[in-house]
Amino acid sequence: MGYENKILNLLNNGYLTTKTVADNNIPRVYLSKMLKENKIERVCRGVYAKKDVLIDDFVVLQSKSKNAIYSNTTALYLHGYSNRISVKYDITVNSGYNGSLQRDKNVKLFYTKKELINLGVIDYKLDNGNIIKIYDLERTICDIIKNKNKLDRELYNKAIRDYFYSKEKNDLKLYEYAKKMSIYNKVRKEFAILT
After folding, report:
1. Are 70 and 108 in contact (CB under 8 A)?
2. Are the C-beta atoms of 89 and 64 separated by less than 8 Å?
3. Distance of CA 81 to the CA centre of its chain
4. Taking Cα atoms as reference points, which of 1, 2, 12 lies closest to residue 50?
5. Confidence (pLDDT) at 1
6. Which residue ranges make up each domain of the chain?
7. Among residues 4, 39, 75, 180, which is most buried (max CB within 10 A)?
8. Do residues 122 and 136 make contact, with C-beta atoms less than 8 angstroms apart?
9. What is d(CA 41, CA 119) in angstroms, rounded to the nearest whole number?
10. Burial status of residue 33 (CB atoms within 10 A of its CB: 0-12, 13-18, 19 or more)
11. End-to-end CA distance of the chain
12. What is the pTM of this model?
């Protein structure tokens, strides 16, 4: 199989990063060749897409870091706990992250310990069929409680209230996450107000 076919096979959801090309020992010159031949297009620095793929900001932003997880108000929106589309995408990365997402004006970054980055991560299927990584509902609720002072008060209160009265809630998982994140008392206090 030639390098161009390997590149086409590596396109994940129609996207590819230069890192993936390098990790598969494919010379980068083939990316340039495929660009010139209009087989792929450059979406942003280090990210390429199939020519016929509609550009999806969720996928593009997440492809910039393997540890980028949609969180906080963005995750609330995707879970249906907010009807407001955020101006910026809330993304959680591990502490010590140093990458292009820090310079992206459409991203609001949150940081977490490396050992907590994958706590509550799920695959989420967007309407267009693309799969992204977001935090599940319980981790999202823990995150917004942890970041309460950085969020819109009205949006925060509605999300907490809606979760408290939801049939989907999983108290056991919520408090398990809260313990691991060292915010157990904060979470308990938040929901004690509603009882």
Report:
1. no
2. no
3. 16
4. 12
5. 61
6. 3-55, 59-192
7. 75
8. yes
9. 34
10. middle
11. 63
12. 0.84
Backbone angles phi, psi at 166, to 5 degrees: -80, 145
CB pairs under 8 A, 24+ apart, for 2-6?
3/27, 3/30, 4/30, 4/33, 4/34, 4/39
CATH architecture of 3-55: Orthogonal Bundle (1.10)
Strands 107-112, 89-94: pairing is parallel
Element (H, E) at 132: strand 131-135
Tokens of 15: 């996207």
| Reported confidence tier of residue 21, pLDDT bands at 50, 70, 90 | confident
Residue 115: Cβ within 10 Å count: 9
DSSP for 53-109, written as a single string: PPP-HHHHHHTT-TT-EE-HHHHHHHTTS--PPPSSEEEEEETT--SGGGG-TTEEE
Show the 3-state SS of 99-131.
Answer: CHHHHCCCEEEEEECHHHCCCCEEEEECCCCCE
The rounded distance, in Å, linking the Cα atoms of 24 and 18 is: 10
Cβ-contact 96, 134 below 8 angstroms: no
* Torsion angles phi and psi, residue 58, rounded to 5: -60, -50
The token duo for 74 is 């963005």
User: Is there a contact between 134 and 78 (Cβ–Cβ < 8 Å)?
Assistant: yes
- Give the pairing of strands 47-50 and 131-135: unpaired
